[in-house]
Inverse folding.
């Protein structure tokens, strides 16, 4: 999952939510999709945190140049 792009992970999450909302999943599918969603959420959270750190670092570097 490390090579996955953030946008693709969000898209997959949206697909899972849509499928869940349709009510057409059986219990086994639901369990599998929930596990996948959990991994995707963790991936997205990590990517957002890393991006936030990188942005703060860049902004701090820029502010020390002034």
């Amino acid at each position: 999952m490390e090579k996955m792009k953030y946008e693709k992970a969000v898209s997959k999450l949206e697909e899972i939510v849509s499928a869940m909302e349709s009510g057409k999943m059986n219990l086994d599918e639901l369990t599998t999709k929930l596990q996948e969603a959990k991994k995707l959420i963790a991936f997205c959270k990590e990517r957002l945190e890393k991006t936030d750190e990188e942005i703060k670092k860049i902004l701090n570097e820029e502010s020390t140049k002034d």
Notes: The longest helix spans residues 27-65.
